Automatic annotation (TrEMBL):
Organism name: Hemiselmis andersenii
Enzyme class: hydrolase
Gene3D superfamilies: Protein tyrosine phosphatase superfamily (3.90.190.10)
Upper lineage: Eukaryota, Cryptophyceae, Cryptomonadales, Hemiselmidaceae, Hemiselmis
Gene Ontology MF term list: protein tyrosine phosphatase activity
Protein name: protein-tyrosine-phosphatase
Amino acid sequence: RSLGGQRGVGFESVRMPQADDPPARVPYEAEGIYALGVPRLFFTTHQSTVRTQDIIRAQPRLFFFSSFVSEEYQPFCQDFGPIDLGGVVRFTEEVRSYMEDNRLQHRRLVYYSATDSASITNSVFLLCCYLMLEHGFTPERAVARFERIENLPIEPFRDATFEVDTFGLTILDCLRGLKRATSLGWFDRVVFDAEGREELYEKPEHDISPMTPKFVAFATPKDDPKDERYSARKSINHQAPFRRLGVTDVVRLNSDALYRDSVFEQTMGFKHHVVEVPDCSAPPARQVERFLNICDDSGEGVVAVHCLAGLGRTGTLIGCHMIKHYGFTAAECIGYLRAMRPGSVIGRQQHYLELIAECEWKGNLPGVSDEALQKIIKDAWSAGRNAAVQCISQAATLLRAGSNLSALETLSGDEDVEEEGAA
């Protein structure tokens, strides 16, 4: 962060657009400066630290700044974002502090990113979140400030695997998920406890993430110190944080239990349920029904859910509840879940949630019709998502009994979805 300037390449006007005023399209070039639709705030990219230093010296009337938050994402595989909501809140506070600094009131503020696509994508996501949370932009209006920059190297976020990405989660998907969660009262940046979340997440004692007012996701506890496959997070370590979070029920999804189920019930006083879903898979319809019945029976209590890592199967079943009860699209749901717990929902589980969003429900039992399945497949073809078609068809077998469609095969046990033990 430093005081500095720019050679004037591509410097735009700061005229405030109306809500329905589409911003003018401009070409992208490194070191070009682009207005973000609010007074004094701009975006640029720099090719190196040396160039940043040169630019800073060139025109000291501008204030250039960046943020380490855009670099915080820790990948599991080939994933690179999005930044979680704790980072979003910290970033928003950083930008606000510069915008409100009395020493900078007559300066133009230019946020700079590195020029690689991952850095730009995460920076754009964070800036869009700032525009939404601080200035009331809609997701569409925030994204439009960057979509107009022709050839700006933004790429879709992807799942936490080394496989071919078949879904393509966009910044707009993530913003819409955040917007829906905000409208439901799930997220309020003013009271969001980023520090409290960090104390729960990926610690030696436990790996816990509050997801929605109804759900907590966590990695499997392990009580056998001789088992070296997973971190030794003992069951009893979860008692105190679960009490604080209002947990009443615990659901285990993995079949390979690494602790005694009775510990949660007899020792800690939680209701414990087993809803086994095969590793690297998504749940059959009857397991969805059983899971949602458990959630209904828990009343006002919070349900804590885990598989092995607390990412794939855990996120998928929580997503089923979000879609059924709150109207999230699959993409909105996945974007929000990954902002709450990075890496959530993996491989064909993404397409499974697309099907859940089109399901016909009989109580808590989901079912997808031939017409809905064909529509989803047609939409995938039309969008050029050819690799997604087989994934959608495979996921459909879990929601359709006796399918007559050819080339359908069960998703259960498909080792290509992700690395063993990740979901």
